[in-house]
């Protein structure tokens, strides 16, 4: 019997995205092809300004490409419900008026299933070492703790697709290991992760590596 390859959670081809600043046009993505399958961590490296964050923004639907095809699970463009897609942006995106615990549980609150996810939220907070900060506000914790809050929030609903931008940038070695192990656990449970990073150590935890160079994604040199 031939075993079927798992279908990609997202598949993008020939993506183009540019930004206009007055007379200047920046071509951030120039014909990018990418896909990631369940159980896989895809690592993307690349110099600052090469287009990595733009790619994540296009894949999650924040930015619209000028050209190219983008398909999520189900076959149509951007048809993955937002609750099945999570992003940990470089800016972390915490809501300053919510406590750390409320930030972690926010995705469950938005789908009106807070009670169901409260225990998982507590487990994630313990695993990521932010449980003792539950009642603090984001401006009362460290940057590394803020980043782990954003990661716990992203993992809460067990999304099908997890996009993480420099997820170990604010972590010491020990917490970086915990963060990377949490992505591996997520992938082992069938999730698909795209991890953008400058850190060799983080990229060593990926199953497959690609490199972004001036808006073009390819095999690392
Ligand atoms: N909203 C925007 N308006 C104008 N230019 C933008 C915008 N967003 C990104 N750019 C430009 O697009 C290019 C790619 O930016 P992007 O943030 O994707 O790079 P990156 O590889 O993620 O960089 P870094 O590693 O520093 O985060 C850069 O030249 C950047 O200045």
UniProtKB/TrEMBL annotation:
Name of the featured protein: ATP-binding cassette domain-containing protein
Question: Which SUPFAM superfamilies does the UniProt entry name for this protein?
Answer: P-loop containing nucleoside triphosphate hydrolases (SSF52540)
Source superkingdom? Bacteria
Q: Which GO terms describe its molecular function?
A: ATP binding
PROSITE patterns cross-referenced by the UniProt entry: ABC_TRANSPORTER_2 (PS50893)
UniProt keyword Nucleotide-binding, yes or no: yes
Q: Which Gene3D superfamilies match?
A: P-loop containing nucleotide triphosphate hydrolases (3.40.50.300)
Q: What is the native source organism of this protein?
A: Jatrophihabitans cynanchi
**Mind listing the UniProt keywords for this protein, alphabetically?**
ATP-binding, Nucleotide-binding
What SMART domains does UniProt report for this protein, alphabetically?
A: AAA (SM00382)
Q: Name one Pfam family in it.
A: ABC_tran
Q: Where is the signal peptide?
A: none
Q: What are the leading ranks of the lineage? A: Bacteria, Bacillati, Actinomycetota, Actinomycetes, Jatrophihabitantales
**Occurrences of domain ABC transporter (ranges):** 10-221
Which InterPro entries has this protein been placed in? AAA+_ATPase, ABC_transporter-like_ATP-bd, ABC_transpr_LolD-like, P-loop_NTPase
